[in-house]
Design brief:
- The structure holds 2 protein chains of 2 kinds.
- Chain A contains 9 helices and no strands.
- By secondary structure, chain A is an all-alpha fold.
- The N and C termini of chain A lie far apart (93 Å).
- Chain B is mostly helical.
- Chain B is built from 13 helices and no strands.
- In chain B, helix 4 packs parallel to helix 10, helix 9 packs antiparallel against helix 10 and helix 10 packs across helix 12.
- Classes of the chains: A mainly alpha, B mainly alpha.
Chain lengths: 202, 361
């Protein structure tokens, strides 16, 4: 009973937030609604006893990816009027793409493949069930090779991204930290003892 | 506590309501204690830094200045919350709440004793990581919604810094979970049991311990990593436009996060509520003495003592170190801390694999 109320609450938040992502004008608001949508789906995953996945979703997407996203979107200078130019010209093409997309989504996640009669309702686990352990066992035994291949692909992507943004020092003037750290007081300052005259105090 | 309420209210209320009521009362106790600690942490900060700088510190309100935080609270509550003319009103007012929420919610999984924990969940450590990574939203939203250059600069600095140090923090905790073999915080404390002070993870995981605490200082935007406030460069950074209670919420969030990091460092590396004497070969006889034994034995007082020690370090850092230059903060996070933690995660796995005595046998 309580579980159902929680599920419908999260589902309603998820749908509203996801709709707002594509309807609000302000891009920063859209990103924040996307964050809310991630949260709501994490809540739904939690109801499925997938606590590892739910928290990882918050940790990775909300905590890291969306922060960078927000970072970039806040810097953008978006002019809605310019974006709207030529709206009428693109409408036919946009409609075709939209219909194709909706059709494809409908075929994949429609009632033909999903539904209470197609997928068995997962049985609730005992209180000492650990989702992290189950997931770890699945990834590192049954699906070890696909997992390792995915990891290597990601590594290649990371190195490629760094290589693309790396600038050599010829294009970029920057202080050399090693040299700064190597500097000692004796290199910069010479302390000299000056024999001054001391005024008489009365 | 649940049984007590159950016995009292059984005839009047259904079981489910009593359960919810128990949880709400527990949450209220935790939050009230936390907010009182925050209030007196600000007092301690001013007194301790005053002592370090050979000043007296606040001493006018109440005996020895002890009512100063209460006076501060009343001052902040009665001040007006100004909203800048071109600010985004909704986000401007939501930002402090977003900053404070995760700082309070993370306390749900901190174990105060063997049984005393609000939510004893399996993925406690992941939950902590997820919630500490959310704190940055309050800062970014505040910086953007203020519609002010200084606030925006502070928010950008803070976002980049927190993203950088979160990775080092995460890897340091990966080392802890390899050593403990569990994500549950009470099991992590249990894994440190047996050798007293020398059995805690700070010794086998010393580099991770140091990195975690320093990254924690950076994550809470405290000196010497407080470039997001940087009062000499960008006025007050992300909260420059905030006043009254809205400012007070940011203040609360910052101090609640400090206590949080101190508590987490105690739990992960310093044995949490374990006594440093428990399990030591010669002294453990002391623990069976009636009154002294309770005091020297494990309990919440040791956790509080450890938290207080790490908070003192926070204040000590602020009193002694000049602020980092921004590029050096980034260098420290990405080029020094992350490699150290990566190497030590491998070392920790090897230590666990060879079952290195006396910690991992």
């Amino acid at each position: 009973m309580i579980e159902q109320i929680v599920f419908y609450a999260f589902a309603a938040i998820l749908i509203v937030a996801a709709t707002m992502v594509i309807t609000v004008r302000n891009p920063v608001h859209a990103v924040l609604f996307l964050v809310l949508a991630f949260f709501a789906s994490a809540g739904i995953w939690m109801l499925l006893e997938a606590e590892f996945l739910a928290i990882a979703l918050v940790l990775v997407y909300v905590g890291a990816v969306m922060v960078l996203f927000l970072f970039v979107v806040m810097m953008l200078d978006i002019n809605i009027a310019v974006l709207r130019e030529g709206f009428a010209r693109y409408v036919p093409l946009a409609l075709v793409v939209a219909i194709l997309m909706v059709g494809a989504i409908g075929v994949t996640v429609g009632p033909a493949n999903f539904g209470a009669d197609k997928v068995a309702i997962p049985a609730p686990h005992a209180a000492d069930y650990s989702n992290s352990q189950a997931l770890g066992a699945a990834i590192y035994t049954d699906y070890l090779f696909p997992f390792e291949i995915a990891a290597v692909v990601l590594l290649v992507a990371i190195i490629a991204a760094i290589a693309l943004t790396l600038r050599t020092s010829r294009q970029h003037k920057q202080p050399k930290t090693e040299m700064q750290l190597r500097a000692r007081r004796a290199d910069r300052v010479r302390l000299v003892k000056v024999s001054g005259t001391v005024e008489q105090q009365d | 506590m649940h049984e007590l309420l159950n016995n009292l209210l059984q005839p009047y209320l259904p079981e489910a309501v009593i359960t919810v009521l128990t949880i709400v009362i527990k949450i209220a106790i935790t939050i009230v204690c936390l907010l009182l600690s925050v209030a007196y942490l600000t007092f301690a900060e001013r007194k301790v830094i005053g002592f370090m700088q050979v000043r007296i510190g606040p001493n006018r309100v109440g005996p020895g200045g002890w009512l100063q935080p209460i006076a501060d609270v009343f001052k902040l509550m009665t001040k007006e919350v100004l909203v800048p003319a071109n600010a985004n009103k909704v986000l401007f007012l939501i930002a402090p709440v977003v900053a404070l929420g995760p700082a309070l919610a993370a306390w749900a999984v901190i174990p105060f004793g063997a049984e005393t924990v609000l939510a004893n969940i399996n993925a406690g450590l992941l939950y902590i990581l997820a919630l500490t990574s959310l704190g940055v939203y309050g800062i970014i939203i505040a910086g953007w919604a203020s519609n002010s250059k200084y606030a925006f600069l502070g928010a950008m600095r803070s976002a980049a810094q927190i993203v950088a140090y979160e990775i080092a923090m995460g890897f340091a905790l990966v080392g802890v979970l390899i050593a403990a073999g569990s994500l549950n915080l009470n099991e992590i404390i249990g894994a440190q049991r047996g050798l007293g002070f020398f059995g805690w993870f700070w010794l086998p995981l010393l580099p991770l311990f140091v990195v975690y605490f320093i990254a924690g200082v950076a994550e809470t935007n405290r000196a010497p990593f407080d470039v997001s406030e940087g009062e000499s460069e960008i006025v007050a950074g992300f909260h420059v436009e905030y006043s009254g209670m809205a400012f007070a919420l940011f203040f609360l969030a910052e101090y609640a996060n400090m206590i949080m990091i101190a508590a987490l460092t105690s739990v992960m590396f310093m044995g949490g509520w374990l006594s440093p004497l428990e399990g030591l070969p010669f002294i453990s006889g002391l623990l069976s003495i009636p009154v002294l034994g309770t005091f020297l034995g494990s309990g919440i007082h040791w956790l509080i003592f450890k938290i207080a020690f790490f908070l003192l370090l926070f204040l000590w850092f602020r009193a002694t170190f000049p602020r980092y230059r921004y590029d050096q903060i980034m260098r420290l996070g990405w080029k020094i801390f992350i490699p150290i933690t990566l190497v030590w995660v491998v070392v920790a796995s090897v230590l666990v694999m060879i079952k290195l005595p006396p910690w991992f046998n």
